[in-house]
Design goal:
5-stranded antiparallel sheet, 2 helices, rod-shaped
Length: 160
Amino acid sequence: MRTHLNRSEDRGIRQQKGVVLVVALMFTLVMSIVGVTAMQSTIMQERMAGNARDRNLAFQAAEAALRAGEDASIGGGPAADTMLADPAGWDGETPEPTGSVKDFDPQLAADPVYYADPPRQVRVGITLPPRWRYAYPVIARGEGGTHTAIVVLQSVLEPP
């Protein structure tokens, strides 16, 4: 047995034939855009976390080299003949470092190094006659897991 729709219902169905398809395609397009945006955001956050970890490794390496350089300076270790002209721009190779921390961390791209500048006299206070003490500048350079994550630290050590 076959049922017939009355003419007004039949006309309404014919007019709506492609509307559901268009709405479904629009919904799919919107969901795809949301999904791609979410993936791009997640990838960017992953990269930022990796870079932060890499810089943290470089900082820890430079800090270890700085402490080793300070210990060597106090203990009468080797010091350079000339001062570094640009400590922040030191590449860790030229001039040659005065020491390094071997096998600090296997994740590092290179061993942390330090450069102990020659001691210099610094004035203490403003009294006359002037009093002088020796200060030992130490520059340390550490690289993270890649050669692009670099931290350079400098301290001036005044032994007691």
